[in-house]
Specification:
By secondary structure, the chain is α+β, with helices and mostly antiparallel strands. It is built from 3 helices and 7 strands. The strands form 2 sheets. It has a 5-stranded antiparallel sheet. It has a two-stranded antiparallel ribbon with strand order 6-7. The radius of gyration is 16 Å and the shape is globular.
């Protein structure tokens, strides 16, 4: 599976009054990681919308484990990969490392979504194109 890895420095604005990362900030990190993974595979959001006529891949389920706190000034490494594809949904696995320790793990279920053909205010799941699946399965080897 294709993996995107990036590092980031924990900023003051990411932290709560206790000086640790405020938990919703991790979700923003992971959302960014998903977008970067798709871009690495050749499918940034603009390309996806234009080429496949989709809105994007909204989150429908989220499971997170917080194992160690991260603080202002910590440098963290975030690894993102697709864990599983189904017809129109897929799971994204995120692992955030602080040094050698795993600090946060998350598994996020997303749906490949387009506008509903009968109601433009609603979204509808669509099958993930094989071209996208193949690009995200590629391991570079």
């Amino acid at each position: 599976m294709l993996i995107h890895t990036h590092t980031r420095l924990i900023e003051w604005g990411d932290c709560d009054p206790a000086g640790i990362v405020f938990h919703p900030r991790y979700l923003a990190y992971f959302d960014s990681g998903t977008n970067l993974l798709f871009a690495k595979a050749g499918f940034d959001t603009t390309t996806l919308q234009a080429r496949f006529e989709v809105i994007g891949y909204p989150v429908v389920d989220l499971r997170t484990r917080f194992l160690a706190p991260c603080r202002h000034g910590d440098e963290v490494r975030i690894e993102t990969r697709i864990a599983e594809f189904r017809n129109s949904s897929f799971d994204v696995q995120h692992v955030l490392h602080r040094g050698d320790a795993v600090a946060v793990e998350a598994r996020v279920t997303r749906v490949w979504a387009g506008w509903h053909p009968e109601d433009p205010r609603r979204m509808q799941g669509r099958p993930v194109p094989e071209e996208v699946r193949a690009a995200l399965r590629h391991d570079g080897g």
